[in-house]
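Subject: for your reference before the review

Hello V.,

The reviewers asked for a structural picture of the protein, and I figured it would be easier to keep everything in one thread rather than splitting it across files. Below is the amino acid sequence we used in the manuscript, unchanged from the supplementary table.
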Amino acid sequence: MAPAAAQLRLGFCWIFALFLGRIISVQVTVPSEPVFGKVGSTVLLPCTYNTNFVKGCNLAWSFIPTGSSSEKEILYYDGELYPVDTRRNRIRLLHSAPTQGTASIEIQSIQPSDTGSYICRVVNPNDWSGNQQGTVNLEVLTPPSTPVCKMSGSTNVGSDVILTCNSVEGNPLPIYDWKKAKGVVPQANWIMDQRTGTLVLQNVSFAFTGSYQCTSSNEQGTASCSISVRITAASTAAVVAGAVVGTLLVLLLLGALAAYFVWFRKRHFKGSSSSGNELREDAVAPPFKNPKSKAKDDSESQLMNHSLGRQETASNNSAMMTHVV
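And here is what came back from the structure prediction:
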């Protein structure tokens, strides 16, 4: 819209108000409490105002989903109605011409995605003060959706098993309750959180084997799921693997001790050699004498000396006889 046209519209509203002899501040009124509605039903979002809705004034509704800060316009009226949201077929003004102080809307076949804040705005260029908007909070009541049951942790005897249960939908937030189909589990081993739907089975035994059911419930209804738990003994393969690992660790320890002993002996031997007892590599080892060989050598030497003595005596006797002749 051009600035000149806007100024002309504003001037017209001022003249009309002066002609009436009064100027009223805009005051939008909405309920302070949330509006509740069951899923699939039709709800009324009240909104009233006290200003004169003349030409140039407008009405707008916008929506902020729960958990979001993004505001989106869903309906606009300035003499004609403009539904601008995808839910246009489900939203309508309570009065087709909201010019008599009522700007309420109806939403048909409400869905969980309709939960959030709805802002009603009434703008009158003549009224520059007052409260021009109000917020209506809508809570769509839904029963819990079918929960999903899951299991984590080890199912071996003596371990802890964790069961979880969760419904994606449900307003108000559902609470959860776990039960074992048959048999009784010691309460000391049973830890349940109804808010989160978690059940911890501690130090399980074969008595914990069975079917467990989780029920998700709120004021609108209930839904449930179940899961089977089978407790087993420790795996034989795991025991064998543990024994093998233990054996390897022992062998590694023995190997480390042997290596240390060898290293220690080498270091001690080198220390002794450095003090003067080290053998020279180029030294010739003394010959080895066998005691038996030495006795034999002595006997042969005596025999040889005796033979030489006899030969020497015979020689001397021969010489003497020659000299006599």
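For the response letter, the relevant points are probably these. The radius of gyration is 55 Å. Residues 236-277 form the longest helix (42 residues).

Happy to draft the paragraph if you're swamped.

O.
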